[in-house]
Design goal:
The chain is α/β, with parallel strands linked by helices. It is 40% helix and 15% strand. It catalyses: D-glyceraldehyde 3-phosphate = dihydroxyacetone phosphate; L-erythrulose 1-phosphate = D-erythrulose 4-phosphate.
């Protein structure tokens, strides 16, 4: 955690979820209604097909709804894509950009991620910008170099603590059940914080830096308690309300 930064517990449903899964969002929306929500923000990013109906379900809940990607342009001939404006039009508040699965499956570069981040900002959305090294890069001692490059090239100059969240997701930890050691997480987050402060000054000091990669109810308290870890970006464990709420509840003790 970082003093004075309100953590964000965010779920990324990836290509999972149909209308039948809306019950889980309903349960999450109810489950986050207590007083902890004043200290910790929550967000679920379902597939785009569920975005509009999911935001309607969260009308009277602090649970926010976001999207998993956006196109860098406002509109036009881009079959299959959705724009940041469309997400805002569905009452989405956030959009994930540069997830490693997008970088790999769709060859997305840092330059493109930066353009998508700018598009998100222009539409009034918070961009959750994902970065992280591969297993090979970590083994080769290059993890921090990769983070430095991705931060420098994926973030636009207009990034602020209000419009941008960083999500550090070591690629080798995603969906594998593996997590970095606490000291590796601490080192990576301290490094990202110093990079952000050196480029964005106070805004960099206030930007949230989430950890993502095999976050579960069983390891949430330990990971979320690390210095400069300002929340989580959760994949598999965000599909079920019980797991998501158990991770969120780790903050009961952390913020006590
Ligand atoms: O966006 C979420 C991450 O890719 C983490 O996924 P995971 O929690 O299933 O490892």
């Amino acid at each position: 955690m970082t003093p004075d930064i309100r953590p964000l517990v965010a779920g990324n449903w990836k290509m999972n979820g149909t209308r039948a899964s809306l019950d889980q969002i309903k349960a999450m929306a109810e489950g986050v209604k207590g007083s902890l929500s004043e200290k910790v923000e929550t967000l679920i990013c379902p597939p785009a097909t569920l975005l509009y109906v999911a935001t309607a379900l969260c009308d009277d809940s602090p649970l926010m709804i976001g999207a998993q990607d956006c196109h860098q342009k406002q509109s036009g001939a881009h079959t299959g894509d959705i724009s940041a404006e469309m997400i805002a039009d569905c009452f989405g508040t956030h959009v994930i950009v540069g997830h490693s699965e997008r970088r790999t499956d769709h060859a997305e570069s840092d330059v493109l991620v930066r353009a998508k981040t700018e598009a998100a900002h222009a539409a009034g959305l918070v961009a959750i910008v994902c970065i992280g090294e591969t297993g090979e890069e970590r083994k080769g001692g290059k993890a921090l170099d990769v983070l430095k490059r991705q931060l420098a090239e994926s973030l636009p100059d207009g990034a602020t603590a209000e419009n941008t969240v960083i999500a550090y997701e070591p690629v080798w930890a995603i969906g594998t059940g593996l997590t970095p050691t606490v000291s590796d997480v601490e080192e990576a987050h301290a490094f990202m914080r110093s990079e952000l402060v050196s480029r964005f000054a106070d805004a960099g000091g206030g930007m949230r830096i989430l950890y993502g990669g095999s976050v579960k109810p069983g390891n949430a308290k330990e990971l979320m308690g690390v210095a400069n870890v300002d929340g989580a970006l959760i994949g598999g464990a965000s599909l079920k309300a019980d797991d998501f709420l158990a991770i969120y509840s780790a903050y009961e003790e952390l913020t006590a």
